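Researcher: I'm preparing a figure for a lab meeting and need a structural model of a single chain. I don't have an experimental structure, so a prediction will have to do for now. The sequence is pasted below. Please return the structure as tokens so I can convert it later.
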Amino acid sequence: PSTTSDTDNATNENETQVNIINALLSEIWASVSTSSSSGCFASDT
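Model: Understood. Here is the structure written out token by token.
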């Protein structure tokens, strides 16, 4: 049980980091897509 809880904790930490990274990437992607004049990035959200 201790090993499974350790892996669960590690998974939770990894998921938290992934969520933060995804949030940052989404903000950056939004700024890039809105600032791009060509508009090729806007359709591929």
